[in-house]
């Protein structure tokens, strides 16, 4: 008897397969982190690899290579998508582009205020930045599961909002959670950007040539004290594109890295960063001011901030909602933006010295992000107002 594998092949080729791999890795990582192999798993991700001498430092643990190295490629892809949409897509109109930017600001300020409402004057008040950020990888993975049930413009809106959100988080880290910024390394990175801009102006069309200065930009930003993934966004902004049917250098690179990012980098990142061993002491932190500040910030602060910002933009007529979307969509996207994860966990580590506070914060971020993802997915799936052809 022959088995028809066409359905499986079609599933693997679809965007849903990337989301499936992502959630599979989250579940597998949590199971292993709370099994007899937990110590071995921790030791594996703590193992250092790379090269180092008196002048070059490129030796880091495996977790750092994943979070600061491979995830830069993910940020590169998102940056390419955003630039393409700015030039020829949903963000080409200033009125459309302005809304996700303002929403990102609202979605960052309100959660921080909620957190401080629970933690002001306590030893955990320094964690106010934890609930500000949206995890691009997880949020886009969830909305991709909805496929044609939501307008494509809404996915671009979420991507734009999330990347501005993370840029805000990176700025917050640089200003409030970084002990020291090395200006000379930023200067070297700036020189690399000037080279990329010159290549763009000289009409260099080979997209891979842009990655050579990009590697140096990543290195110097990483050593500047600022989160290295910003390098991916910066490099993406310099690749040439156009609004014609001819495939541009930007589109060539975007197509080349899409599958490695969706099917390898994001799942690997999820596996490495949900490696959290649950402890009894951590559970009490969920209802403590620390946990409540994070949870309320992500689950209420994010959707309220984004919805309020969207409402103000439309009422003042300084922007408009994504094409074919409605207020119910914005609420759903607001909850998806409450998937904090990457940056939230990163800021948690920077916020506290007490290991118990760090563990409690991680667990709160993970639990809140899962709830936000489920609620956002459910709300968007329930919305029957979107026609298939509009997506």
Question: What's the helix and strand layout?
Answer:
Blueprint (H helix, E strand, L loop, with lengths): L5 H8 L1 H19 L4 H9 L1 E5 L4 E5 H27 L5 H26 L16 H10 L6 H25 L6 H19 L9 H12 L7 H7 L12 H25 L6 H5 L4 H27 L11 H10 L4 H11 L3 H28 L9
Antiparallel strand pairs: 1-2
What does this structure look like?
This protein is an all-alpha fold. 69% of the residues lie in helices and 3% in strands. A hairpin with a 4-residue loop joins strand 1 and strand 2. A two-stranded antiparallel sheet has the order 1-2. The two termini are 39 Å apart. The C terminus is likely disordered.
Low-confidence stretches: 386-391
Report the helical percentage: 55-70%
Number of extended strands:
2
N-to-C order of helices and strands? HHHEEHHHHHHHHHHHHH
Broad shape = globular
Termini separation (Å)? 39 Å
Strand order of the largest sheet: 1-2
Q: For the residues shown, what is the average pLDDT? A: 86
User: Major sheet: size, sense and barrel closure?
Assistant: 2 strands, antiparallel
Radius of gyration: 21 Å
Instruction: Count every helix, treating DSSP H or I runs of 4 or more residues as helices.
Output: 16
Q: Determine the structural class based on helices, strands and strand pairing.
A: mainly alpha
Percent in strands: under 5%
């Amino acid at each position: 008897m022959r088995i028809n594998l066409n359905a499986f092949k079609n599933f693997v080729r679809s965007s849903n397969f990337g989301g499936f791999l992502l959630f599979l890795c989250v579940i597998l990582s949590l199971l292993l982190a709370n099994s007899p192999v937990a110590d071995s798993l921790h030791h594996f991700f703590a193992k250092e690899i790379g090269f180092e001498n008196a002048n070059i430092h490129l030796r880091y643990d495996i977790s750092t290579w994943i979070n600061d190295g491979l995830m830069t490629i993910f940020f590169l892809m998102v940056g390419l998508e955003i630039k393409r949409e700015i030039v020829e897509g949903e963000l080409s109109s200033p009125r459309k582009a302005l809304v996700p930017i303002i929403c990102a600001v609202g979605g960052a300020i309100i959660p921080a205020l909620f957190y401080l409402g629970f933690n002001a004057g306590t030893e955990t008040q320094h964690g106010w930045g934890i609930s500000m950020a949206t995890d691009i990888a997880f949020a886009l993975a969830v909305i991709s599961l909805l496929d044609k049930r939501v307008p494509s413009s809404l996915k671009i809106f979420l991507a734009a909002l999330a990347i501005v959100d993370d840029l805000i988080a990176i700025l917050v880290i640089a200003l409030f959670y970084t002990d020291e910024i090395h200006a000379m390394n930023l200067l070297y990175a700036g020189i690399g950007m000037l080279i990329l801009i010159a290549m763009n102006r000289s009409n260099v069309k080979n997209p891979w040539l842009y990655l050579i200065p990009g590697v140096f930009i990543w290195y110097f930003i990483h050593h500047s004290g600022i989160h290295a993934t910003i390098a991916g966004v910066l490099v993406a902004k310099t690749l040439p594109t156009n609004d014609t049917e001819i495939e541009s250098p930007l589109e060539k690179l975007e197509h080349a890295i899409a599958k490695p990012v969706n099917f390898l980098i994001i799942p690997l990142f999820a596996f490495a960063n949900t490696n959290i061993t649950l402890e009894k002491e951590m559970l009490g932190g969920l209802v403590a001011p620390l946990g409540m500040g994070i949870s309320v910030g992500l689950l209420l602060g994010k959707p309220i901030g984004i919805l309020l910002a969207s409402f103000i933009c439309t009422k003042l007529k300084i922007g408009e909602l994504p094409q074919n979307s409605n207020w119910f969509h914005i609420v759903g996207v607001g909850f998806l933006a409450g998937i904090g994860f990457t940056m939230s966990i990163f800021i948690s580590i920077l916020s506290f010295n007490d290991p118990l506070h760090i563990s409690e914060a991680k667990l709160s971020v993970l639990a809140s992000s899962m709830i936000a993802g489920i609620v956002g997915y459910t709300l968007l799936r329930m919305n029957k107002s979107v026609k298939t052809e509009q997506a």
